[in-house]
Every structure is written in structure tokens, then in C-alpha cells.
Amino acid sequence: MCTKSFGVLHITLSSMIGGGPEHVWQLVRHLPDHITSFVAAPDTRPYGSRFLQAAGRERFCVMPQRKFSLPSLWRLIYFLKRNKIDIVHSHGKGAGVYGRIAALVTGIPNVHTFHGVHLPANQVKRRAYLSLERALCSISKACIVVSPGEASSAEALGLCSNKLVVIANGVEVGADLPQGTQPSPFSLVHVSRFDPVKNSLWLLDLAQGLRQVGLLDQCRFLLVGDGEELPTVRQKIQQHAMEKYFQILGSQPSSRPFLREAGCYISTSRREGLPLAVLEAQAEGIPAVVSRVVGNTDAVEDGITGFTYPLNDVPRAVECIRTLIENRDLWQRMRTAAYRRTKKHFSVECMARETAQLYKNILHA
Fold first, then answer.
1. 3-class DSSP state for residue 286?
2. Model confidence pLDDT, tens digit, residues 25-36
3. Could you tell me which of 9, 77, 58 has the C-alpha nearest to residue 38?
4. Burial of 167 (C-beta count, 10 Å sphere; 0-12/13-18/19+)
5. Which CATH architecture has domain 6-170+347-364?
6. What are the residue ranges spanned by the domains of the chain?
7. In this structure, are strands 219-225 and 264-266 parallel, antiparallel, or unpaired?
8. What is the enclosing helix (H) or strand (E) of 222?
9. Does an H or E element contain 292, and which?
10. Which DSSP symbol is given to 11?
11. How far out from the chain centre does Cα 15 lie?
12. Nearest 5°: CA angle at 52, between 192 and 112?
């Protein structure tokens, strides 16, 4: 049976290193051939060039980096009409404003993916955001949440409760479990955009905790990424004379080469959607030690594929790391379990297949 072709425009307001742009890039590359993918995104590094390569110049619309402007909205609406787009798929807060207003104006169905339900700390801004998001949700035909935990958060806030669809984030998973032995010193890889949500500064507290129990000399922290808090992280490392234990790698084309050689992945996040870096680590057969917050608890099966610890609980996190270092049999079992669970539940092929089916359902409806 011949499947009818249709076009989908993906909108993101970030082309910097992060889970949202990576999600869009993987989705565009893995959707079925009968779906023609268009991308609206900033033409900046590193993902701007990747989007251009995946979609092609004629199917790429330049957007501002995390900023709203009326000229950009009108340009987007014109792009949608000129290319006769069938579905507009917005990714993240800012893109959701553009995508759903454009959908309202053009009559094109909108699908929106939250990529984490992140509320402003300020109460006035929080109320304003929730009011806006509830209004925008009424425009969307479906709202994708990337984990069951994120679905619960959205429902509790009254966001698109009757339109929520759980489609888990997906990553590339190899055909077989990568070979690996526990490294010495034990490397803890941390991938971050270095903002307050990622809570990366807490790694210094963790290092102090490892020092107090005599484990720090057996450990090395590898920090991948860039962001507003990275200069402060560098400063704190120098102040505590910990240059020996921290290697700052900055932005990298991919974190996978560093994950393959890791002892564990370490997450310090205050909140998540469904963290791609954690899934990528597990796809490489690397156990993850993560803060016990929404998203992380969906990604890691505590005691099976890795460990969770209460947010900012240094003694508990230290104990998790000690267990992995001292119990190599457990480390090997967790490697296998992490790889198998990721392959079964969090592959990019599964994510693309379920997303394509959602598009089809909306168009048929």
C-alpha cells in the first residue's frame, strides 16, 4: 500500500548544544521517507549547519536565537504557506509561541513538544507563563511529553491534559553492547549547558565529599559543554585547588567518545524532561548516577541500570560512586542492563516511528 506523503515543519529557537536541538536533528534524520522535513531554527553553530544538511537550503527557515519578533513570525507564516506545510511541530517554550500562533493564522495543525516543563522561579512570571501556555495548548492538536514524569508534571499544572501524548526521547543505540572495562582512574562524565537548572556547580561539593572519604584520588571529572556558569565552575575548581581532578573539555561535536571510556555518567540537574546525555551514556553501556528528579528517574532504573540520589545529597551520591568503584561485578551488570533497557525503550527509531504515527493520526482526523 502506498503511503501518502506530507510535509512537517520543525521549529526550535536554539541551535546551540542541548537536548532540544539534538532531538530535532535526530527526528528529522529518522522520520520515514514519506515525510518531508522542513526546519525553522537559528543559523548558528553547531546545529544550524546540521539542520541545513539534513533538510536542505530550500527547506530551512532562519529564526532568531531564543527571541520573539513580529518580522520573524510573518516570515515563518509565509514559509509555511509557500511550502504548503501539512503539520507544524514546535519544540520548546519559545518555538511553541511561534508555532502555535502560526498554526492559528494558517489553519495548519500544530504538534508541540515541551522538552521539560520548566517554570520560572518568580511567582508573577510563573503565573504569566502558565496562563500563556494554557491558552496556547488550546491551539495544539497534540502535546508531546518525553517521559511519564513530565506527563505527570504537565497534568498537575493543567497543561494540555486531554491532548498529552508520551513519546520518549530516543538516541542512537548500536547493534551490540560496546566492549568496556572500568577505567582507572574512575572517570565521571558530566554533559551540561552550564546553567542554574543543570546545577553543575554542585560537582565541587561532590568532589569535596569524595575527598573526605578518601576516594577523590581515584576519580576524574570530565566536563563537556559550555554555558553561562562555566567560568564560575572554572574559578571554583581553581579556588579549591582541584585542577588535577577536573578536565573541562568545552563544546564538543559529540559526547559519545567520552562516554564510551567513562566509569559512570553523573547528573546534578534540578529538573529534566528525559535527558539525552543520560540515555546516550546508557546506550554506550555506562551506568548513570543521577539526581532523583523528574526525567532522571524515568531514564535510570535505580539499582539496575545505575543509581539515583536525592538532589544535592553529597553522602548518598558519594556512596553510589563508591559502590560502582568497589563492586566491579555490579558495574558490569549495570552496563549490560543499561544498554538493553535503552535499546528496548529509548531508541531513536522507536521515537521517530511513534511520532510519525501521531502525525498520521492528526492528518486523518
1. coil
2. 999 999 999 999
3. 9
4. buried
5. 3-Layer(aba) Sandwich (3.40)
6. 6-170+347-364, 186-345
7. unpaired
8. strand 219-225
9. none
10. E
11. 13
12. 65
